[in-house]
Amino acid sequence: MIPELGHFALILALAVALVQGTLPLIGAARGDARLMALGSTAALTQALLVIVAFAALTQAYVTSDFSVANVVANSHSAKPLVYKISGVWGNHEGSMLLWALILAVFGAAVALFGANLPDTLRARVLAIQALIGMGFLAFLLFTSNPFERLSPAPADGNGLNPLLQDPGLAFHPPLLYLGYVGFSVTYAFAIAALLEGRVDPAWARWVRPWTLAAWCFLTLGIALGSWWAYYILGWGGFWFWDPVENASLMPWLAGTALLHSAIVVEKRDALKSWTVLLAILAFSLSLLGTFLVRSGVLTSVHAFAQDPARGLYILAFLLTVTGGGLALYAWRAPKLTSSGLFQPISREGALILNNLLLCTLAVTVLLGTLYPLFLDLLTGNKVSVGPPFFNATFVPLCAPLFAALCVGPFLGWKRAELWPALQQLRIAFFVAVVAAIVAAVAIDSRSTLAAVAFGFGVWLIMGSLVEFAGRLRLGRAPWSESLRRLRATPRASLGMTISHAALGVVVLGAVATGAWHLEVIETLKPGEKTRIAGYDVTLVRVDNVQGPNYVAERAILAVTVGGRPFTILEPERRLFTVQRRQVAETAIHSNGLRDLYAALGEGDRNTGWVVRLYLNPLAPWIWLGAALCAFGGFVSLSDRRLRIGAPSRRPAVQAAE
Amino acid sequence: MSRRLLFLLPLATLALMAGFFAWSLMAGRDPASIGSVMVGRPAPRLDLRALRDGDKPLTDAMLRTGKPTIVNFFASWCTPCLAEHPLFTRLAQRDGAVIIGVAWKNKPEEARAWLAKLGDPFLHAGQDFDGRTGLDWGLSGVPETYLIDGNGIVRFHFRGPITEKDVRDTVLPFLKGGKP
Predict the structure, then answer these.
(1) Is the pLDDT of residue A537 over 90?
(2) Which residue among A305, A647, B9, B64 is buried most deeply as judged by most CB within 10 Å?
(3) Using CB atoms, which residue from B10, B28, B83 is nearest to A326?
């Protein structure tokens, strides 16, 4: 009964979305206030209905209702409760429902918090949001109904993909979708602005919080996915340039560019058509990622339900959304005129450089991801584009981006001098060079590139801190004065400093782990020991463990330093009985500065077990930095100027920052 | 007017990409299953060090013995390889199939330990540690399996693990007739 209720709510939601996607648009065109007001009511109703549908599916999973085909295919009564819940979105149908849910909730949020938007703009944004929602709801109802019944109901289910039965991956998709779907709001704002033929500083300020929120969630989602890959795949790496990872990186890069270009629109009333284009692209790239992952046109280590028929639907949807947006762009954007003139050496000049580099990075990832597909179709040759390509293209492109990143905030709007900015940064430059030299001499003299990259990480942190210290006049004014300035600092500036410095933290972690990790792979019998970087590791024994829905071999590795007990590592290799799949569960001892990482490979009592040990310097900093980066975004989001009611359509005040 | 064309550029790029995507979906191209440019062509070069100590290295001559031959790329770190392994063991023991194994991007000692544990169905076994031979063979991952006739022509190419059904419907008839 409850699954039918969910199904019915979904059908109603589609009907409501149809109303929300059409009537407010007509109202906005005719200036009919009643039709426009319908948008908000419909958005709230639609959100409520999709919440009901999602709750119904969750209920089916929690109670293990095996008369629902989706539950049978992806759940099992012996599964822990948290994975019964995460199983809801751990499959194609459920994840599409989660997508529709987030989309509807974002729409409702625009309706709730958009009281300060002009009526026509709000009506149009909500309508566009509903049209996107219609695509997903129709997709769900016509091709991927999660509420389909199965008769007779089997006694038990097939279980969730074992790789997904992990706390990291349980919450990775929702965060990622919050990011992807968040960009749908910026897309809707961009389309609405094109329809209105008007992009101005007020528009930029309304779009900014949505972009920021989406960007923060996407950052967290990507970080969580990378952390998961790090500890579950058992190879000590944290980024594999897999198509699925690339699919999430592209919208992130476009979103980061959008975040910065919107500032130029807000402050200088310029770069309008470019910003609108980025808003369309950020969401389009999110959809493109979904298409690539779900349609099966690319192979990936992430096995997702792949089905060409669904692929065709998503492609058609992608074409409608992106094609429609870009056609409207080609038609209306040439009319958007900018007022300001540009000096290359200025804050806006620096932000344009930032945009150029970020977009080049996004295009590089796109080409690297799609090249195997193009080549296969055109010549029949099969190639795989992996880390060597990206190391040779993506990484060098980051260098000018990082170099310029610290200089930008020192430049004033309109016109600035480069030399005084550089002079203020000389301490940061000096520290970075020293760090690079120390890295080259003391850690690894063979890899100059790694040392330079390490220097860049230090440069990012120091450059951001120096800028912040200068803002507070730290050391040059009395403490009380600095404290007063700290309190007066806008949250947006504070957020910028945090996020920029956090990027440096990520770079340090990635460089140190990537270039300077140590690796020992040995076959050990119980009682035998090996050594990695001063740690003596002894395989004490291997136990057979019975989990709720798996059996596992668990190795007990005793780690000693100079004969003294240091820690016990217990890596496991789990065999999920229902799916007959093995999953490695690594054991990591982290002290914040380095990870001691152990993974258990194949083996038995006679031949011994393969044990892989890694020492990853600064590895925790990668995820710590990414979380800090998102935190900076949230701090910026809490800025008073972005809060409800603050922005309104009046000439932008030139803020003195 | 050229300014207008500039604004059309994103749309044109999308159209181009969409064409490719539609093509790849329509072509029935499924990177995860049968269907390969290798089928019907002579098998690519095989020149690899032996996996097991004291064995002969792998050469092209091993593919042109007049007998149908199965070539299987595997790795000890690959879970689907584990699933298909018993089928190869049975093919070798019960059906007397000639199977050549190639350990792809796999440390030789790990591959040897894996075979020692699960049983070794391979008449010859080689190591392709850097994956270069896999590249020549158009490999997109492991496991992949090629059926090669007595003259060294590739007749079937399985991407992904072979199944009981594949053995019954394809591999066994191929071994009996030497032809698809």
Answers:
(1) yes
(2) A647
(3) B10
Map out the domains of chain B as residue ranges.
1-29, 49-177
**Chain-centre distance for alpha carbon A463:** 25
Q: Does B116 touch chain A (CB under 8 A)?
A: yes
* Burial class of residue B2, CB neighbours in 10 A (0-12, 13-18, 19+): exposed
Q: What confidence score (pLDDT) does residue A383 get?
A: 67
A18-51: pLDDT as tens digits: 999 999 999 999 989 899 999 999 999 999 999 9
Mean pLDDT on A392-406? 92
A76 contacts A162 by C-beta, under 8 angstroms: no
Pick the closest to residue A259 from A279, A286, A229 (CA basis): A279
pLDDT digits (tens, 9 = 90+) for A320-361: 999 999 999 999 988 887 766 677 888 889 999 999 999 999
| pLDDT of B160 above 50 | yes
- Both tokens of B156, joined, read 């079937």
A478: cis peptide before it, omega within 30°?
no
Q: What is the pLDDT of residue A231?
A: 83
User: In this structure, what token pair is assigned to residue B159?
Assistant: 């991407």
Mutation target among A233, A272, A319 for the B interface, most CBs of B within 10 A? A319
**Residue A26 corresponds to which amino acid?**
I
Positive or negative: CA dihedral A534, A540, A544, A547: negative
A198 in contact with chain B, both atoms CB, cutoff 8 A? no
B72 three-state secondary structure? strand
CATH topology of domain B49-177: Glutaredoxin (3.40.30)
